[in-house]
Amino acid sequence: MKKNTLNKFLFWIFLFSSAVSCTTIKPLEGGEKIKVLHEKRLVDSILSHEINFEWLKTKGDVTIKLNDQDEYTASIYTRIRKDSLLWLNITYYKKKICTALIGDDSIQLVIKPQKSYFSGTFDELEDLLNLTLSYNLIQDLMIGGSFIHNVNNKYISKVENNQYHLFSHSKRKTNRINTHKTKKEMEHIYQCWVDPYKFNCNRINISFPEKEGEIDIKYDNWIDIEGKYLPLTIDVFFKVSKQEYSFTFDYKSNMTFDEPMKFPFKINKQYELLEILLTE
Description:
Helix content: 10-25%
């Protein structure tokens, strides 16, 4: 009887220790602590801290680099009606270079110097780019979103380098997917690195194994808007069809929220259809 009682006591001690280990507090260098969260609670915290608005207007600069070509910087103006419409206008020394109007399932693009345009669906754009894009993915990129709405995975998380690391596949499984050793095809592999106090994503990486594509995004210089956060600096790198592209968005802090606005867009009848977006 005494032995059975001791075994039960040790068993409950083990369970208690296991429960405590699931909420381990890991210290930062400055003495602050990060609480290890369950994946669902971490995802809910990320989503609840994302900025909420109906209308948003921004302006700033964008630095663009294509492959090994020289980079150049232009001005960018954006207007967003959340979950509905996104308008971009890029100018270089006050001359219009490119205007885009992006809807839920359509994208229109005018490139003024080339007198060309593209008008089609995201499926048609995917055939040209060999990369899966969507309105929500582009919108998230522009406002510091987590992309969690777009990937719908079961996640794994851990504390790494004083931040949360949330990912859809283990390192071992990711290696198997990338080396084509799995039976089931994976559309994407998702991971992000999250601030443990503000719950905004410092970095997001999404790879597309079957298309050999990748998007890597880094958010920085966050501003606090009524307890929600928006990045002023967004570094974007994406690779597709052996081509590499990088963009850096530097927004100005004087943004306009929740004021209805227009989205001016027109395709000149003399412009020609842009059929190829990527060089071979």
